[in-house]
Design goal:
Residues 162-347 form the Nudix hydrolase domain. It holds the Pfam family NUDIX. GO terms for molecular function: bis(5'-nucleosyl)-tetraphosphatase (asymmetrical) activity. With 361 residues, the protein is an alpha+beta fold. The protein folds into two domains: 25-119 and 235-356, Nucleoside Triphosphate Pyrophosphohydrolase, CATH 3.90.79; 126-226, no CATH class. It has 13 helices and ten strands. The strands form two sheets. Strands 1, 4, 5, 6, 7, 8, 9 and 10 form an eight-stranded mixed sheet that branches. The protein has a two-stranded antiparallel sheet with strand order 2-3. A hairpin with a 5-residue loop joins strand 8 and strand 9. The N and C termini lie far apart (47 Å).
Length: 361
């Protein structure tokens, strides 16, 4: 555990959490932490408690500790940091569903579509986000085409019918600020250089003269008229995010991001902290390496009630429960690692129910 003080806070990397370097010198992939929340339909608390009692050792609480003597000394921790010494962790390595007797086959048939996964869709596509942030070169038509292919038809229409300032206002307006105030704060704030460069790129693409004189291969109108979205449905994934502070512990970060994005409270789910977190590695469209670390949780809210309306509407487009089959269908085909994570978790849950549920049948 690290402590944030005025003496050592610059020595802790906000990305990997290691000592002696800052984020800009970090060699690790860009790292996010998230939670895969699972519930079992029509079983109420008995199956949830079955997993809770066997695969967790502590309660699900987060703390921010502050020194009484030195108020600048703080750390962010959870009660589920690690299991007790000498306790074995469980690793999700199931590759098949095993059975020996007829009753176990019947259990599988009963449970196969009752295991649900909580997933989120982003408010904006990655392509739209990268375009608004100017993560391209105006002369690199291949990259711009890839960004447009990742967008929705509605996002392309927005680009066609709005100025960059209008797009930026729609993209960043989280607190119902006036357009004038938001743009002033953005163009004069921490990320002013990034957005000013993005605005300049947008204006260059929008000016037909730049295409005519060969400054750029194609203008914005070409991409709008000729590039079609590659996907008809939104992209779904698991709630996740990056550390907010250098001293934020991995699981604390995962819980915070999960609760912010879904609207859940800590009492609505329980971390199965005896199960090792599972990692996903991928390369983004920007050729940057990413790592996602997911913790498994069991849903503690009444399975027959809906509680999916309090999510973060600024970042999240929707929150839904999916069966395993539907979840696999809604994950993009290039996210092989995410499908593997989903499959391993599903196999683990089903196997445990098949072999340890003594009250069914």
């Amino acid at each position: 555990m690290e402590y944030e003080t005025k003496y050592n806070k610059k020595k802790i990397c906000i990305n990997c959490g290691k000592h002696d370097h800052e984020f800009k010198l970090c060699r690790d992939p860009i790292t996010s932490f998230g939670i895969v929340n699972v519930k079992i339909l029509d079983c109420y608390d008995d199956k949830n408690n079955l997993f809770k009692s066997n695969f967790s050792t502590k309660k699900n609480v987060k703390y921010i500790l502050t020194s009484r003597k030195y108020s600048y000394v703080k750390c962010n921790i959870t009660d589920c940091i690690r299991v007790n010494e000498g306790t074995n962790n469980y690793k999700l390595d199931n590759e098949s569903i095993k059975y020996n007797v007829e009753s176990q086959i019947q259990k599988f048939c009963y449970y196969k579509n009752k295991v649900l996964f909580l997933m989120v869709s982003r408010r904006f596509s990655i392509g739209f986000i990268e375009f608004v942030r100017g993560k391209y070169q105006v002369t690199d038509s291949n990259t711009i085409i890839k960004l447009f292919e990742q967008m929705s038809a509605n996002e392309i229409s927005m680009i066609q019918n709005n100025s960059y300032d209008d797009l930026l206002f729609f993209f960043l307006n989280k607190n119902n600020e006036t357009k004038e105030n938001l743009l002033h704060n953005t163009y004069n704030g921490k990320y002013s250089l990034e957005y000013l460069e993005a605005k300049n790129k947008f204006d260059m693409l929008s000016d037909p003269e730049n295409e005519k004189n060969g400054t750029i291969p194609w203008g914005l109108n070409f991409y709008i008229k000729n590039i079609k979205p590659k996907w008809k449905t939104v992209e779904w994934g698991f709630p996740k995010g990056r550390r907010g502070k250098r001293t934020e512990e991995n699981l604390s970060c995962a819980c915070r991001e999960f609760e912010e994005e879904t609207g859940y409270h800590s009492s609505d789910y329980h971390i199965l902290n005896r199960i090792e977190p599972i990692e996903e590695y991928l390369v983004g469209t920007n050729n940057v390496n990413y790592k996602h670390i997911y913790y498994l949780a069991i849903d503690m809210f009444d399975p027959n009630q809906s509680k999916l309306s309090n999510f973060d509407e600024y970042e999240i487009g929707d929150v839904k429960w999916f069966t395993f089959d539907d979840a696999i269908k809604n994950i993009r085909p290039y996210h092989v690692g995410k499908k593997c994570i989903l499959t391993k978790i599903y196999m683990f849950i089903i196997n445990y129910l098949v072999w340890h549920d003594e009250y069914l049948l």
